[in-house]
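Agenda item 2: magnesium ion complex prediction
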Amino acid sequence: DYALYTAKQQRCGRAIIFSHDHETRIRETSRIEQALRHSNLGNEMWVAFQPIRDLENARTIGYEALARWQSPTLGAIDPDVFIPIAEHAHQIGRLTEILLTKALKTAASWPEPFCISFNLSALDLVSRETMESVRQIVVASGVLPERIEFEVTETAVMRDFDLASEAIARLRQLGMRIALDDFGTGFSSLSHVHRLKPDKIKIDRSFVRDIEVNAASRDIIRTIIDMSRNLGLACVVEGVETEAQLSILRSLGCHLIQGYLFGRPMNEAAVNQHIAAGARLPGRRAYPPKVGS
Ligand code: C2E
Ligand code: MG
Ligand code: MG
Ligand code: MG
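Presented output:
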């Protein structure tokens, strides 16, 4: 019963593999690991796209690419489950290459200036080999670097700050953007923001969940939004599900929103339809064009 795998520990926005039985859990983890190693991942992995919306003009500015795995033997498995296992099994580089290739293939057909956001794992950032593949995949895709954003978490960067920040700087040199994902969880630090110079901050959805009843969550969101504005960074709030949450977020000065309220992650056909059905021609770009690009 693979419902097991999708059980998430909602607190902290972190996922764990949930099982009452430690041995079962280890066995299932190893089955997933085996499947990852031996599957034709190019066929079994696909990418879902979730819209990111600008509240000022009520338009979609881009989409986040989210990994989906439909295993013929194990069924559908959540990325919160298989990504950590892929990292542990040294399969993440291969997975990143497959997913990025697919995501950019879809994004290549979108009209300008829709952006595509892609999540990089900690291990990707510290692997020179993977980062070189990433560069090659971007070049081969034909998608303009200024339309590509990579999402990284601070936790990822902390594994080897120097190597990771070097990789990030290199991506930025190539004209791509960096978003600090899941901001506010883990060891959020102003020094990370200062040293990594991201273009965008994504506020973790754990703060949005109780925004209506928890003044502290509202204060945290307001503080991060204000900080982003003062530093000249874009800021996205993730996980917005209700109109009530949206209206509070507006009052806190929020401009960019991602969440089920405006769209669930969609397959390629659905996202292309989403674009055709009205998201087309956003009023302004997600970012101003970079000087020299
Ligand atoms: P993330 O990058 O923070 O992605 C946002 C997650 O929040 C996605 O879960 C998305 O489906 C979910 N979400 C968005 N709006 C809402 C909402 O309104 N309500 C709720 N309850 N959830 C919402 P998903 O797709 O399960 O991905 C989970 C995590 O797995 C991602 O978190 C990211 O850390 C990782 N991940 C996903 N795809 C990739 C990938 O291609 N590569 C890597 N390295 N990690 C990935
Ligand atoms: Mg993300
Ligand atoms: Mg996030
Ligand atoms: Mg996450």
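Discussion summary: Residues 1-14 have pLDDT under 50 and may be disordered.
Owner for follow-up: CH.
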